[in-house]
Design a protein that fits this description.
The complex is a heterodimer of chains A (92) and B (194). Chain A is mainly alpha-helical and 92 residues long. Chain A has helices spanning 2-22, 33-52, 67-81, and one strand at 85-91. In chain A, helix 1 packs across helix 3. Chain B has four helices and six strands. The chains are: A mainly alpha (92), B alpha+beta (194). At the A-B interface, helix 1, helix 2 and strand 1 of A face strand 3, strand 4, helix 1 and helix 2 of B. Strand 1 of chain A pairs antiparallel with strand 3 (21-23) of chain B.
Chain lengths: 92, 194
């Protein structure tokens, strides 16, 4: 879960950075409720678009993933692999 | 008798007097009983900190945070076909869902909402009778949420106003496609930003 949340934060930060250069996601100094909600909406929409965008030349029947989605999955899994767990049992 | 106490609001194991634990590979003594396993992460930062970091990206100044009343969720974690999380035939008191619920509980104060979706009929493991929940904390203090067990039909349907919509119109594909329940998403349809 930690890996998922951290990688998601990184990916959203990337979207914000890319948006800033295009002027779409500029961070205003005074952030009103409506501004933050619309920023959240833009983030969600752009993240979903990137995660579900079909590779060029493929159809719904042939393509099930894209490189962005695959990269997200692999990054989360590799971060999760770095966590070491102890399995504990309660003894009574 | 010795036992371990799992506090509700943090991630750490705390021991009561004379309590003990054993590693997963160890065997309990003759007179002791081995419980269901509990996972303890050793080298990671907390889930709570990761959740706070994610929320900070979306709402840096906590503008949407409300001290009272319902909170505006910043993130919704959706677990599709979540019934597989409860599949653990070897141990009826332990499954991945229970462990996941423990993790989610550690960030309960953050505006992150979880949604468990399943098409399987056996959803009682997600929202069991409170007396049968394996967690003593749930049994004693925390009520479980009732499942939303059905969704309505024709939610997306166009309105068929009397004397205004023709029979020919309601036989068109785009009209028919909006009837019934939206059970799948056509990923080829691009999401339009609001």
């Amino acid at each position: 879960m930690t890996a998922l949340l951290r990688v998601l934060a990184e990916y959203l930060t990337d979207i914000l950075s890319a948006g800033r250069s295009e002027g779409d996601y500029a961070v205003a100094s005074s952030q009103t409720t409506s501004f933050v909600k619309s920023r959240q909406q833009l983030l969600a929409s752009e993240f979903r678009r990137r995660m579900t965008e079909m590779p060029k030349g493929s159809s719904f029947a042939t393509a099930t993933t894209n490189s962005y989605r695959e990269g997200f999955y692999k990054t989360v899994m590799s971060r999760a692999e770095e966590v070491k767990f102890r399995v504990l049992h309660v003894v009574s | 008798m010795s036992f371990m106490w799992f506090p509700e609001d943090d991630n750490c194991f705390k021991f009561k007097k004379d309590s003990t634990f054993i590693d997963g590979d160890s065997q309990p003594t003759t007179n002791s009983k081995k419980s269901s396993p509990r996972l303890d992460s050793q080298n990671t930062g907390g889930v709570k900190e990761a959740a706070q970091g994610l929320c900070k990206v979306i709402d840096p100044q906590s503008t949407l945070e409300s001290s009272s009343g319902p909170r505006h969720p910043l993130v919704i974690l959706a677990f599709d076909e979540a019934h597989v999380l409860t599949n653990n035939p070897g141990d009826t008191t332990y499954n991945v869902f229970i462990e996941l619920r423990r993790v989610l509980r550690s960030m309960v104060k953050e505006p992150i909402f979880s949604l468990f979706l399943t098409t399987a009929g056996s959803f009682q493991r997600f929202s069991p009778d409170i007396r049968s929940d394996p967690s003593s904390r749930v049994t004693k203090a925390l009520p479980t949420l009732h499942p939303i067990s059905e969704i309505s039909f024709d939610t997306l349907a166009y309105s068929a106003k009397e004397n205004k919509v023709s029979l020919e119109r309601v036989t068109k594909t785009d009209w028919i496609a909006r009837l019934g329940r939206p059970l799948c998403v056509d990923y080829t349809y691009p999401c339009k930003s609001g």
